[in-house]
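User: What would this chain look like folded?
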Amino acid sequence: MSTELLDAVRGGLIVSCQAYPGEPMRDPRTMAQIARAAVVGGAVGVRLQGLDDIRAASDVGVPVVGLWKDGDDDVFITPTLAHALAVAEAGAHIIAIDGTRRARPDGLALAETITALKAAHEVLVMADCGSLDDAIAAEAAGADILGTTLAGYSGDRPKTTGPDLDLIAEVVGACTRPVVAEGRIHTPDDARRARAAGAFAVCVGTAITHPSTLTSWFVAAIEKEN
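Assistant: Here's the prediction, encoded as structure tokens.
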């Protein structure tokens, strides 16, 4: 299954379909509809947050990257083994987990979490990393995919205006696992540049699926002319 999943997303666009708590679109049915619309547009995979959202998009027809954001600690993206197991049981094909070197709430090492998850379910693991050292450690821990999701958010690197192209290139050069570029990819050209930096696939969320943010960008541009 791992080869088939990787082949399915190779060189393509994964669309992250997420809404924050309290927002009008924070509904599993809505997120599933957005995921289906993204697939119509050519997405080769979708990324969904929360067990209900994952279940609602079970028929989307492309690999589902699932995660569960929970807690107020620094590590909140599928923070424990229990969270990862639940995401797999909800139907995700690829389980996205915090892939930094920070301590996890359940006290397990990243390698212990990945080993136990794979022993229970036939899934791939995407490690959301914030630095090159994170990626190297995550690969050694058994992660199948390395994401740049947390670049600029974990304290290891400055937050770039657009995608952290330098980190993408560094991870591609130092690691053997596929690298998914994610984080602040706001335009088609950003996505193109991420692929040119060596990314195996590109994941875009806000710039496609978050109308509140998109609207604010246009409003800000117009207000500059007032």
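The CA atoms of residues 28 and 53 lie 4 Å apart. If you want, I can go into more detail on any region.
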